[in-house]
Amino acid sequence: MIMRVPPGAPHVLRFLLALSVPVVFIYICSYFVNIPTWALILLQVVSVPAYVAARLTNRHYRQVRAAARYGAVLPPAHNGKQFANFDVLVKFQNIYKNGYPGDGLTEVHAELGGTFNLAILWDTTVITNDANIIKAVLATDFSNFIKGKHFQAFMYSVLGTGVFNADVVIESVTSISSKDMQVSLRNHSSSQSFVTDASMNHDKDEAIIKMKQRLQEGHAVDFQDLISRFTLDSATEFLFGVSVNSQKSPLPYPPRSAAAAHQQENAAFADQFVRAFSRVQDTIAARGRLGYIWPFLEIFSDKTADDMKVVDSLLNPILEKALEHARNEKSAGLRKDNEVEDVHEDDTFLDHLVRCTTDKQVLHDEILNLLIAGRDTTAGTLTFSIYFLCMYPDILARLRREILEAVGPYRRPDYDDIKDMKYLRAFLNEVMRLYPAVPFNVRYIRYSIDDTTVPNPDPNGKPFFVPAGTPVTYSVLLMHRRTDYWGEDAHVFDPDRFLDDRIQLLLANPFIFLPFNAGPRICLGQQFAYNEMSFFLIRLLQNFSSMDLRPESQDPATLPPKEWSKFPGRKGIDKMFPKSHLTAYANGGMWVSMKEADVTDTA
Ligand code: HEM
């Protein structure tokens, strides 16, 4: 058995080695200068904070000088009340658990503008919701902004060298397979029939049948759980050619019901996978929030290890099978290596990937990354779609009218139907505007370039200076809600903004709407996602004519705190508790009831 070194250990070791420099220096000096032992110890103890303070001061003045050389200024800094902004660290940890997305940042943006520096325990991050800066990071100045080694370190135990964790476009040598994967997915996704087949022709009504059964029993349904299984089944079918059939296991009952207690004991394997998969994402997101402190909490153990065992027990047998199939084909002379550019008729995505590499670890990482990329994002977006349909019955009625006019009450939609459904597309865009699947994201300035600048939002201001290695954290969620970009009604849910004159705001600056990112690393599954989500919503609204939130079925600890209703904007309007790890989700699920459609009921 291979013993894995806990992920924190090497980082902590490097950190301690760096701190030991002054201690060792003074020790060596003591050979040449006679110092009493007590003074030697005292000097060594004092030397560590003095060394750190000297380095930080030097860093600050180096940055000020470098900024001046660039004709730039440092972004405004947000300062807390305690030493090294310790209070800000505590505040953000608390907000992550109990706050609304963007709490803490929204107030600072209101005070300092769209871009500011935040140094927690001297670890500086640039935080932005400014469209021009995000455009520079993702597109116009793309080659200066990478995921980088710090990001890769805290993601590694889950994402490995997969596409989400690799700087593949510009550093193709670091992860040849990830580049191959991008090519493979582009080939597959650009094949319209493939997208249509994978997302539509499978027996996808299982989710709806299950929901109907549970609703007929008189219970509410956790739509988030249901859709997570639906998207897991479609993603595994898309990737492996076989669904893991997570929809076959029973839906959860409301947490406090008697049926729920019995069900807990019988949690099916797919359920365990779904939970473990969500927990590992929580763990790596928590590492990201802690910055350079996280390795200290994982010196002796890897917090993702147990959950990754569950995840791997599902993935590994599927990979073994695909590799065996590839070996058999090769020995029968049916396959050549490196056929990545070819798309074979009946290939699954995994078959296609196995043509590029037979390294099991690489395949494992790429497939796992794609499960997160393709599944959690669509599941989250559909969950928030149902939330908005419950909140706004008029919008539901209009969407349903469009669906019934285009497809009727029974027929399965095809690609052409979906293409022409303008209100459906506007509805999905509006859901992703207010709740983008990846609400917060980060890129690091490349160490190999010295430093860089990003545009100052003030057209008369000097550009902002950003030193090499600095993380730039950007929030698409906060950008999508800026009233200066979207108008005074930016917090109102209104799909018509993508259809009426307000679309001019977006046409004037397309970078204010980035649910799929932008630039060379734009989402490769965008078209697939629109198709899959449209297909599901059409089938759902053919079957149900109205929906309601059922907060009384949910664990009360996961409901939004009552005092939120006093806040302005979405925080005051929302009736669920949005959260995010790598992707956005609803805390405690999305418990709903729905009314089955009558054949004569045309909305
Ligand atoms: C509502 C649905 C979706 C949304 C909102 C979404 C959003 C995103 C975003 C924001 C990124 C950039 C992440 C980053 O590197 O920082 C991304 C990347 C990616 N997405 Fe999606 N995604 C969705 C669905 C899908 C689906 C269904 C697939 C696959 C079938 C997919 C495949 C990918 C891949 C492979 C990447 C990495 C691209 C690269 O780094 O070169 N996504 N997506």
Automatic annotation (TrEMBL):
Entry binding sites for heme: 523
Keyword Thylakoid: no
Membership in a protein family: Belongs to the cytochrome P450 family.
Needed co-factor(s): heme
Domain of life: Eukaryota
Gene3D superfamilies tied to this protein: Cytochrome P450
Official protein name in the record: Cytochrome P450
Keywords: Heme, Iron, Membrane, Metal-binding, Monooxygenase, Oxidoreductase, Transmembrane, Transmembrane helix
Lineage: Eukaryota, Fungi, Dikarya, Basidiomycota, Agaricomycotina
InterPro entries listed in its UniProt record: Cyt_P450, Cyt_P450_CS, Cyt_P450_E_CYP52_fungi, Cyt_P450_E_grp-I, Cyt_P450_sf
Spans traversing the lipid bilayer: 12-33
Keyword Metal-binding: yes
MF annotations from Gene Ontology: heme binding; iron ion binding; monooxygenase activity; oxidoreductase activity, acting on paired donors, with incorporation or reduction of molecular oxygen
